[in-house]
Amino acid sequence: MEGGLEIEEATVKRRTWWTLQGLIVGVTLVGVTAVFAETVYVQARTAQLRSGKTSLDQVVANLRYGDPLEVLKKEGSWLQVKTESGAQGWIYAGKTSKTKPSGGDNGLAQLGRSMRGSEASAVTASAGARGLDKVSEGYANRAGISQKDRDTVDRMTAYQIADQEVEEFLKEGGLGEYAK
Amino acid sequence: MRSKISTVLELLAFVAAFGGCAEVQRAAEDVARQSGNERLAGVIRGTGTLVAGLLPIGYEEESSIGQAIALQVVARYGGVVEDPALTRYVNLVGRAVANTCDRPDIPYRFAILNHDSINAFAAPAGYIFVTKGLLKQIRNEAELAAVLGHEIAHVTEKHILQVIQRSKQIAGVTEAGLAYANQNPAAFKNLIDGAVKKLLDEGLDQSKEIEADQLGDVFAARVGYDPLAYVTLLVRLRDLKGDDRAFFKTHPNFSSRIEAVQKAIQAEGLKTNGVLLADRFAKWSKRI
């Protein structure tokens, strides 16, 4: 069946050609998408991904500071985004930044700490739970700071407001994502 | 003549120091010591210390510095206003702005200084103060948000820490982290006193104040406050105080600050239809 073989050969060639073309189109599309895909980062202590572009819409996911988000669409003060894990939703644009946040301790500072070895990382927002530390207490002694003033800074250091309270405050004032 | 091994070890130590690999550095130091070259061991150790001293200040050290400076601010400005509800309000406005600033992952705390002068201060690690005198000049929450935003920007940009870093280099502090403060408390006190003098008496570089004005207004606008409110406040203060720098010596004159803020609003495309919240502010300002 020589004829059949020829047909098969031609079919294979054609298939290869189409596959190749498909590949080219595919690669081009990926390239184009890559050029237009904008990445933003969560620039807030707390941020929610919502199902719609109002603060009343359901929370789809809680996002963390520094999380990268792919921007799909912009509408008013809201961005439709996709997280790294594939979740889609809307976020208030004021809680995002185009540049990756460097954080409280940047790479160089961390490097310095790793060389010193003994210092533990203290960069968490709840790190304020303690009062004056040993070094500043020592300074207070040398500088003759009164007990009253020490107590003031001590209380200030330990002062905390829950994220939920701040959220309520924003809501009440029509601020951030609660803008009317 | 330097032996090959010395050169290799020094190079290794330098690379390790810059690469942050303390183990490699220590190993190089040990090899040098074992080979009987105590001087070289010293050089290797010194390389690490020197580089560590030039590295940016980490958060633990920043926190101690911030507390020490805060102690001086409180002491020199007659303590704080003891009104928990009012203090909570100022903290809520401050936190609203700080939560979406460029460095939202450290704690920020706010207090009202019991002083009639018109001023506000920021110590490293997020210790922020506003005087009773300045609060009396403020007419709405958006103005307060921008004032706190200005102080938050000093913290996010580490303006005071840069002053300390320079002083540390000039003073020849080579120990990294808080080692110098623990070993030599007098040196730490000198650094703090120098920074306090700069903050309270001499003022930071004018460019840093302008940067804080612009960035602080961007932070306030990000959360939805009207950025023009800050311009209104600065104009009110200029009318009150004039452009005489002797009056307000720690900051640039008001006219250049107003111009810089207006430029930032334009350049950043900030929306000028944000909220002012004059009523909510008025409820609290009555207590001042």
Please characterize this protein's 3D structure.
- The complex is a heterodimer of chains A (180) and B (288).
- With 180 residues, chain A is of the alpha+beta class.
- Chain A has five helices and seven strands; from the N terminus they run αβββββββαααα.
- The N and C termini of chain B lie far apart (75 Å).
- In chain B, 66% of the residues lie in helices and 5% in strands.
- In chain B, a hairpin with a 3-residue loop joins strand 2 (120-123) and strand 3 (127-131).
- Chain B has helices at 4-19, 22-34, 38-54, 59-76, 84-98, 132-137, 141-156, 159-170, 179-183, 185-202, 206-222, 228-241, 254-267, 278-285, and strands spanning 109-113, 120-123, 127-131.
- Chain B contains 14 helices and three strands.
- Classes of the chains: A alpha+beta (180), B mainly alpha (288).
- At the A-B interface, helix 2, helix 3, helix 4 and helix 5 of A face helix 3, helix 4, helix 5, helix 9 and helix 10 of B.
